[in-house]
Amino acid sequence: MVRRRRPVAFARSGGLVEVRLGDEERDLVANLAGQFRSLLSEDAGPDQRRLYPTAYLDDPERDADYAALVHDDLLRSRLEAADVVSATVGNETLDPGELEQWMVVLNSLRLVIGTRLDISEADEFDPEAPDVAERSLLLWLGLLLEEAVEASLGFLR
């Protein structure tokens, strides 16, 4: 039996990364980047819990100081990343900096969706679960992130 390798979403091509997503996938990424940007514009809510984790579990005062120190920078960098993804989602290639911004958004989306689903690494995929669409999206984002990281490693070697 011959196993066909499924096409990858990102592939290094010289000093750039080729984006091999179809139109529907690009539309989905654009939509998700826009939703992510909207979510970040809201006050911190339960969906953002994993985006801004507690740094000092046993010291609320130090944790509040830490949050005050880093929150605005994290927010600004994530908003910039969402803007880059929205601006480049139709591109055939990405430069290493653009790919890095894609990775920020893909990972952040995974954290938000995982929080909404209240799942952990130990949870198994259940195709019969009522939230199978959201879980499938989470898996797809993980796959895209893995391939983006793999493509980016070539720039570090």
UniProtKB/TrEMBL annotation:
InterPro entries: AosR. This is Uncharacterized protein. Pfam families: DUF2017. It comes from marine metagenome.
